[in-house]
Amino acid sequence: FGQITPMEIDILFQLVGLHSHSGRLNHTDIERVAPLEEGAMPYHLAETQRPHAHETSRSVWLQAAESAYRFTLGSIAGATGATAVYPIDLVKTRMQNQRSTGSFVGELMYKNSFDCAKKVLRYEGFFGFYRGLLPQLIGVAPEKAIKLTVNDFVRDKFTTQDDTIPLLAEILAGGCAGASQVIFTNPLEIVKIRLQVAGEITTGPRVSALSVVRDLGFLGLYKGAKACF
Question: What CATH number does residue 179 fall under?
Fold first, then answer.
């Protein structure tokens, strides 16, 4: 189509409008304006084979580079989002896990979310809001990246030539993406939660990620993984 000038297209529209009120062009009309050279493929066959030829011409290295690019973008997006909302996640975890203070029967440690945030800031400082952030970053960046990469990979395999994806393929892509990230992120999620609530304990040795892994063991790191599937 690059050999057809805008003026020729305009003239063609005017001529087609005399015979058809729809004003639509087809390949036959274009061939009348720009006749094919000897040995050239007809326009309708060229357009039909163009998507397939583009897909087969892509090398394995190019597809791997695209996957790496998507993985990197997903990692950056996931890490940025996790850092921004982490203080809220810490307050939420402590509110869900809160217990009585021991001073009076039935007295809770936090009155509400604002009281929880105030006590964290008072007794643990500003960086107390980011306790356990490192396991979260280690987990959330690959989590988002794996989900996006697997989802895009499955979607690409089921995309038809007219750029549509069947509904079952959409569901399969989402299921594969979610299942693939659970295997990697569930241990890191448990470590993160243990570190988040460890700030409430003022006595005893300091809790670290390594000590949590040592106490739970390999199988303990996958507690609750079935619910994620």
Answer: 1.50.40.10
